[in-house]
Design brief:
CATH architecture: Orthogonal Bundle
Largest sheet: 2 strands, antiparallel
Strand content: 5-15%
Helix content: 55-70%
Shape: globular
Number of strands: 2
Order of helices and strands: EHHHHHE
CATH class: Mainly Alpha
Number of helices: 5
Structural class: mainly alpha
Radius of gyration: 12 Å
Length: about 70
């Protein structure tokens, strides 16, 4: 099982830099990198809420599941 974080796609659609996004969400650019690179083990709902509010999107626009072996 793999959860893919599509933050790059959403940031590109909005022309937003990682620094701007991190400041708007209230987390460090280093933690944004952890999310983008798929190294995060968990995401708090409050963080997911801030991400969706900032990007004006749904959680499914940022997170997707792909089965093993895909």
């Amino acid at each position: 099982m793999a959860i893919i974080v599509d933050l790059d796609v959403q940031l590109a659609k909005r022309g937003m830099s990682v620094g701007e996004f991190a400041a708007a969400v209230g987390i460090t650019p280093a933690n944004i990198a952890v999310l983008k690179n798929g190294r995060a083990k968990a995401v708090r709902f409050t963080t997911l809420d801030a991400i969706c509010r900032t990007l004006e999107c749904q959680p499914g626009d940022v997170l997707r599941w792909v089965p093993d072996g895909s």
